[in-house]
User: Fold this.
Amino acid sequence: MAQAFAYTVYRGTFIQTTRLPDSTPRPKTELVRNRGALWVSSADGRIKGFDWQARDEASFKELMTRNGWVDVDAPETNGYDGNEVRVKVVLASEESNEFFFPGFIDTHIHAPQFPNVGLFGSSTLLDWLETYTFPVESGFGAQADQPGGADTLPKDAPPSALRIYDQVVARTLSHGTTCASYFATVHVPATNALAALCHSRGQRAFIGRVCMDNPDFCPPYYKDLSADDSVSATRSTIEYIHALDPKGTLVKPIITPRFAPTCTRPALEGLGKLAAEFNPPLHIQTHISENTNECALVKELFPESENYADVYDRYNLLTKRTILAHAVHLTPDERNLIRQRDAKISHCPASNSALGSGIAPVRTLLDEGITVGLGTDVSGGYSPSILEAARQACLVSRLLGHTTSFCQKGEKHVHENGHADKPTIGREKLSVGESLYLATRGGAAVVDMADDLGGFDEGMIWDAQLIELGSVRDLSESPLDVLTDGASSLVKTGPVGNVDLFGSETWEEKIQKWVWSGDDRNVKAVWVAGRLVHSRS
Amino acid sequence: MAQAFAYTVYRGTFIQTTRLPDSTPRPKTELVRNRGALWVSSADGRIKGFDWQARDEASFKELMTRNGWVDVDAPETNGYDGNEVRVKVVLASEESNEFFFPGFIDTHIHAPQFPNVGLFGSSTLLDWLETYTFPVESGFGAQADQPGGADTLPKDAPPSALRIYDQVVARTLSHGTTCASYFATVHVPATNALAALCHSRGQRAFIGRVCMDNPDFCPPYYKDLSADDSVSATRSTIEYIHALDPKGTLVKPIITPRFAPTCTRPALEGLGKLAAEFNPPLHIQTHISENTNECALVKELFPESENYADVYDRYNLLTKRTILAHAVHLTPDERNLIRQRDAKISHCPASNSALGSGIAPVRTLLDEGITVGLGTDVSGGYSPSILEAARQACLVSRLLGHTTSFCQKGEKHVHENGHADKPTIGREKLSVGESLYLATRGGAAVVDMADDLGGFDEGMIWDAQLIELGSVRDLSESPLDVLTDGASSLVKTGPVGNVDLFGSETWEEKIQKWVWSGDDRNVKAVWVAGRLVHSRS
Assistant:
């Protein structure tokens, strides 16, 4: 048992992004660096203050003394008499180019699809669902030989389901994901198991039991029995999760109609009502406008709706707590409706490229005042890393100018007065700072926790990661020995991945190198609500 | 000193791609798996034979006995009497999902730009050159206080240049790159140092001193003094490299006009003649049609030429040993000319996305009979990994159908008879197997070594890597302990990166998981010409 302490004091460099103002078109977000100390209460895991002057040893000591703090790991250093407040100090090493960064928020990930990471062939959305996705998800059902009972408990799920879910939580934590909005499967016990695993491992999570009752679209081996079943099974997972975490401190349920084609109208209606039963209303997540064939199918299935977004709106599923994944092919009318409802968008660039869905016009969405975060969309997306999602967001934004939607249909910036600009070449590109905004504060806003997560503001929750880039390479010594002694020159690579620093980089350039060359090796430690939940082995 | 042996016998699983036939449009290449033993001569590093029956211990022993081989590490096992042929056995572990794979070939990489990996902001080609590239490359000049002398030797280069080049070679080897076609800088000592470092560390390399003498385009601080200087300084590096490696076993010079805008007509003419002086003619590398502004500039600078490709053709720089990097915006006429000359193309998808250049239509190039390989294009490309280039090649090919060039201009498949098909939706997508073909056999053909490199054919050189995916996760044990004991559940990640195997994967799916989730952690060992040049630390 660790020694109790009132605060953890984090020392070193802190990097975060600025908030995005409400004005439209929106200014670009930027990276901000602070150095000094920041303290987090052990009682509630929230940031209680910071001191950006306390950079050197003397001013840090002065901070400790001023607050009457004693370092639990070095009590002798300031005369421990039992009346001081005990604190734990965690240092980000300057020499190793370490810094604290807000935890990543994955606003769209399918946990049961994790075994399929990297398996998608040359398929597109609709055949991918049938070939890869429904078969793997169907394996999360309760065991046939299960003894009778409620069949809602994690232990009723197949062991393989628990093992896979455990690995998903482990992997995403190791990549710095402190909060994830998960799609599970239709199965109640396994869905509840995912909630229990997140709760136990300490990952903040929204857990959605997937609803899919349309027999015309869903395969017979993997579907809800009826619209009523969709709603009642969902209610069952909500009850389990509310019992597991009554205040929703860490884990919350989220209403999850898979997407319009998998759901009957009664199911959509029932789920909209179910979300509204609670106070505050429950979160909702689904997919929208990922693929052109999907858009055509929705038009055919819901002829009474004006457009895809309107299908959800009709059933009260388009709320300020709704996460819409993809949004690649939205019309201006749909974007307008989404903005009016303040529904949120999860941008999943790795998935949209992998399945050939297209490129979501993120700048247009942001400029029009829509809230956007990032999703890995495992396993449409091939990586559980939000850093990879940030990279892909930057890359595809640079290809947007070559797409038909951008060049022909014209993704224009619409001002408040309704006046539309011609496309501004280059403005569509997302910077590293902006993609990191999407990965942190953007994601926080998508899960309706913009005041709690995504940055290091006073009062926010300490969901954070310690990033280590490694030390700068010494360029002063020439490797002439290699030239003369090839025999001894077997290559050694560094302990912390692929980021190479040569000493001339500004701090902003170090962040760029992290985004473009970094991986989980650079994630040294991860905290959620102040609790250490991952430490690099 | 290691004990001498006549052969190395590699045992286990071998994966490679099929060759691409000459027919047009070309059939798709596929992955092939063999299991058994393959042996490489210590004398010349070439594959002397294989036995795909020798899978189990008994048949392997029988193979050893039949050939009169004795394992140098276990001589007692078959009665060592001094007359047997001594061999070293290297095993790829089945339990750890290890396999041998041909070494990667990077057909386009700028070694001096390595410190800029990840630094490109939102720039496009022409401003990127000015802002990021020319400044870093100019630092590779000889030191001002250098004592007099030839000023051509590696030791005359700045220590920082040697250190950076050494790191480039180390990093690329650690990612499995056994052969690279390097652009260096204009500086002779540093260019020669790069050759010496590759030779010493054992990486197969083409080393190009960059030629850029056009004062209207090149900055005054970084350019050749004249066209004569371009040619004579290039000749100087050729002489150094030919002295270093007289037979060109490992390292060869390559004529390198940077690209048309940086070169005057006399320089292009002189370089074309210089390449033709040798027998066989020297390799040539340059850039073509990367960016639309660049294409417009070339049209303006060379009004007498019919198109960009024709600029090079006029000066005998479009040969069957020419590597053209990028080729994003080629016209059908240019593709036709390139095919007639049998010049080769280096596809650099990471770079083309990062700099917003566009998407090269690889399937069209292949179908028309043009030879294509992959390039990282560090640091237009943000990664020194050809595996990352393979991933990006797959991804951008899936976005090609959304681009203006594909949908509007229509990338059609032109048959031998001149008949052009309508674009076939989906055919443009590259599979994992095809991207690995580009990374190995395709690259080998690009550097005009298709009979020597890129596969495990008898007689080929053993440029290879040992890939370890790690063992399969045991799904039979449920992690219920995590559910009940969160305190002990700090996450541990595996030793070999991000590939997660669950036991249900076919061998092809394991390769897909490697491509989509793998990195340098999966590269356990690398050989060039039979010599171990990298071993994971």
